[in-house]
Each structure stands twice: as structure tokens, then as C-alpha cells.
Amino acid sequence: MTGCGRLDLAAWRRRLWIAPALASALALVAGCNQQEPQSTPPPAGQPTQVTEGYHTTQTRDGVMQWELWGNTAERFPGQQALHLNAVRMVFYRAGIADATLTSSSAEVDEQTKNMTARGNVRVINTREQLLESEVLHWDDARQRIHTDEFVKFTDGDQVLTGYGLETDPDLTDLTLRERVEGNVPDSARRQVSQEQRP
After folding, report:
1. Which of 82, 89, 100 lies closest to 58, judged by CA?
2. How far from each other are the two terminal CA atoms of the chain, in whole angstroms?
3. How far is CA 192 from CA 23, 56, 165, 170, 195, in A?
4. What span, in angstroms and rounded, lies between the C-alpha atoms of 104 and 107?
5. From CA 35, how far away is CA 62, in angstroms rounded?
6. What is the mean pLDDT of the chain?
7. Is the dihedral of CA 7, 9, 11, 15 positive or negative?
8. CA distance 142 to 177
9. How far from 72 is each of 61, 88, 106, 156, 170, CA to CA, in Å?
10. Strand partners, 1
């Protein structure tokens, strides 16, 4: 070897052993200094929570007021309401099931217990009276169903249609507001009023 001086084989072997050991130690230290990866929030359009087979109840003084089911319940970022799919809600009077609401979907405010049912909304009571609309709102504090949308009410062979409605859950005290068509038998226990639009 010209110009290389003396080669110490023993020292060279020690350097060959130390180099990979030092590299491993440095990699270990670097790994310890790395922080755990933080979970990123879901996109705005994605739910933060999904519950399968959702079910909740509401009682007053120990008496059942209503039960609510949904195939799924989804919670979205920044929203207080739960979004339910394939909805069924049973209303009780004096603890006995008296009417059932079904709809394609609904939004439920967990604090106020108010609900907006959407899509093929139907309410049928134990007397087989049927209320149909695309949107119905449930006001839990007032225990009333209402909407400004088109509604259809069927009682046997009697059919009423109109826009805007308010009723109790079992369709006993029912008010149609505008553009009402159909006739009402004298024996029907409901109120029908019509307020013409300007």
C-alpha cells in the first residue's frame, strides 16, 4: 500500500463493530423523540359517531310518553342533532301505545327532544286514521306535531288534503290550515280551519 501508512487490523475491526451499533442506538433515540401520531378529525361531511340499532325513550312522572327507534344514528361535527335512518316513533297515552310515526329519516335534538321527520312520513293511530306528509315536526314541550308542508289525512273513506297542520300525536285534535280540500263528517272529533294565502 503506497502512501497509506500502517493499517491496524484490530482497530479497524473494532470500528466496523462500533459503526452499526452506534447507528442502531441513534435510530432508537430518534424513535423515542418522535411523538405519537395524532388522530385527525373527520371531514365535515363525515359523521363522528355512528350507532347501529338506536333506541331511546321519554317518560314523565314515570309514565311512558314515547319511544324512538332508528336503524342507524349519526352524529356530525358541530351539530347538536342526531340523524336517524329508517325511523319509528311510538306515542303513548296514559302509558298505552296510541299512535305510530314512521319516516325515512329524522333529526333529533337530544336536549329539547324535538324531532323533524322527513321522507314518506306516516302517523297512524289505533283507530286506523292516517296522516301523511313529507315533513313533520315533533314539539316535545308542547306534545304537538306540526308542519307547513302538504298533508293528507285519511279517516276511512274520508280524505282531507291541505297545507300546514297541527295535531296531537293520536290525531284527535287536528287542524288543517290552508287550501283544504275534502269533507269532514259531523261525528269527526277534529277541527279543520282554512286560512287563505294572500
Report:
1. 89
2. 109
3. 86, 33, 9, 16, 10
4. 11
5. 51
6. 81
7. positive
8. 19
9. 29, 12, 11, 34, 26
10. none
Per residue in 167-197, pLDDT (tens digit) is 999 999 999 999 999 976 554 445 555 544 4
Q: Report whether pLDDT(150) > 70.
A: yes
C-alpha angle 119-128-118 in degrees, rounded to nearest 5: 10
- Calpha distance 65→140 (Å, rounded): 10
Which H, E and C letters describe 79-140, residue by residue? CCEEEEEEEEEEEEECCEEEEEEEEEEEEEECCCCCEEEEEEEEEEECCCCEEEEEEEEEEC
**Residue at grid coordinates 308542547:** 142
